[in-house]
Amino acid sequence: MRHFLGLIWVCLLLAATGSAQELPYFVTYSAFMEEPGSLEIESKLTSGKPDGGNWFVGYPTEFEYGTRAWWTTELYLEGQTTANESTVFTGFRIENRARLLFNEHRINPVLYFEFEDINGANKSILEVVGHDGQAELTGSNAETRAEKKRELEFKLILSSNAKGWNFSENFIAEKNITHAPWEFGYALATARPLRLVGGTSTSPFAAQNFTAGVEMYGGLGDTDSLTLGQTSHYIGPTINWTIPNGPRITASPNFGLTDDSLSRIYRFGVAYEIGQISRFFHLRSGGVD
C-alpha cells in the first residue's frame, strides 16, 4: 500500500504542467469532456464518521484521458484508511462517457458506463444508490474487505449552460453482476465562476480563477422498492480554485439530510493536467521527425 500511495504521489508531481477548467463537482457529472490527447490526474479525499464507527478517509485517484472530443475514459484506483483499524486497497473502476450531441444545445445529454471491481471496505462515496447508508460504513476492514463487489453502473447525464451558470442532472442505475436488484440514485449540481470575463489581474487569487456552486445527491431505492424512504441524501456548497499553470483545488462539506446519512462528509481534491500527453508517445514511437 505504501508503494501504491507513493506511485500516486509521484504521478501527481510529474503532472504539474497545467490544469483544466472544470466544474467543482465531486459526485455530479456534466457534459464537460477532457481535451483529446490530454490526461488529468486527480486525487480526491472523502472523510466522515458513521454513528458507532470510526473516522475514515477514502482516497480514490482518478486518471482521466480525452480519447476523442466526444469521448472520455477514466480509471480510478481506490483505497481507504480507517482510524484504529488499517489502510487497505479497495479496488478499481473503469468508466467511459460519450457525448451524444457535438454542438452546444440547451440540454446536452451524455451517456456513462462504468465497471467497478471493489470490495466491501470501499469508502470513496463517489455516488449514493439504493439504500446506501452509514450502517454500511461501520464494519471492520478485516471483515468487509473480503466482500467482493463487481458492478455495472449506468448514468444519464444532462447538462445545460446559461449566463455563466452550469446546471447538471444525473440519473444513476447500478447492478451487481451476480445478484441483487437494480439500485437507483441521483445527483444534481449547479455552479458559476465568480467572474465571467477575465480581468487584467494576473494574480492567482483573481476572481476568475474561482468557481462556486452547490451539489445534492442521494439514493432512490431499487427495483423492489423505488422510494425516498430509508435512503441517504446529502447537500453542500462546493468551490474550486484553478491556479494558473498549476493545480486545481476543490473542496466541499456535505451535510446529511436523513437519519440514514452521515451527519457530514468532507471532500477535498487536487487535480493536475498533462496537456497533449499523446504527442509524447507519438514522438517516442518515431511518428514525428
Keywords:
globular; mainly beta; 289 residues; 3 helices; Porin
Secondary structure elements and pairings:
Layout: H1 2-14, E1 39-48, E2 56-58, E3 61-68, E4 71-82, E5 87-99, E6 108-119, H2 141-144, E7 148-162, E8 165-176, E9 183-193, E10 210-222, E11 225-226, E12 233-242, E13 248-256, E14 264-274, H3 277-284
Describe the structure.
By secondary structure, this protein is mostly beta strands. The chain has one domain (2-284): monomeric porin ompg (Porin, Beta Barrel), CATH 2.40.160.40. Helices cover 9% and strands 49% of the residues. The protein is built from three helices and 14 strands. Strands 1, 2, 3, 4, 5, 6, 7, 8, 9, 10, 11, 12, 13 and 14 form a 14-stranded antiparallel sheet that branches. A hairpin with a 5-residue loop joins β12 and β13 (248-256). It is globular and about 55 Å long. The N and C termini lie far apart (41 Å). Mean pLDDT is 89; it is low at 1-21.
